[in-house]
């Protein structure tokens, strides 16, 4: 068989590539992870009793916006890390942007507060449990994110695992806002971020083992 004939034969038998397969895979994995985080929040911790009032409070939506924007930025990074040959570029820097904005706002609020109010502002009433609660709630989303990435072709599994962990931690933090009574920016800047970093570390450690292909 001539080379040209072989190429034509192979080309004729190639099935078309579904361009939306990756989007559907990530959509299913992260949607199930988010639903799992919400169910866990309500089952383990419960809804904050004043949620109706909070829905009309701008500060509450600022609190929700931080992890939601971080999740969106981390997902962008994860999508790039999932595809061989796709440059990461400034994706990590953009992922860190919501955290940096929060830290600036927290530093300003902390600096302007009277000295006697600074520690209560920083610790709130739940600093001991907050990071562990977020880590627990991140489990469903971390499993969903790893399942989605596993179906792709990540060539940097440690980085992909860390990005998947950040997506999961951000989704978990967003769900945790339904329960968490803390409304201090300084509290979010320390303890929310600490909780989100737990699945990042777990994802980075598990990535080389679970995301190989």
Shape: globular
Taken together, the total number of domains comes to 1
- How would a crystallographer describe the biggest sheet? none
* Number of strand elements: 0
Unreliably modeled segments: none
Helix content: over 70%
SS strand fraction: under 5%
Structural class: mainly alpha
Mean pLDDT: 90
The number of distinct helices, counting runs of at least 4 residues, comes to 9
Cα radius of gyration in angstroms: 21 Å
Order of helices and strands: HHHHHHHHH
Please give the alpha-carbon distance between the first and last residues.
34 Å
Give a short synopsis of this structure.
Pfam families: NrsF (PF06532). It is built from 9 helices and no strands.
Present the secondary structure layout.
Blueprint: H1 3-12, H2 21-45, H3 51-54, H4 58-81, H5 91-112, H6 115-123, H7 130-150, H8 157-176, H9 185-210
Descriptive terms for the model:
213 residues, mainly alpha, 76% helix, 9 helices
Q: Your description of this structure?
A:
The chain is an all-alpha fold and 213 residues long. The protein has one domain. The protein has nine helices and no strands. It has helices at residues 3-12, 21-45, 51-54, 58-81, 91-112, 115-123, 130-150, 157-176, 185-210. Helix 2 runs antiparallel to helix 7 (130-150). The protein is globular. The mean pLDDT is 90.
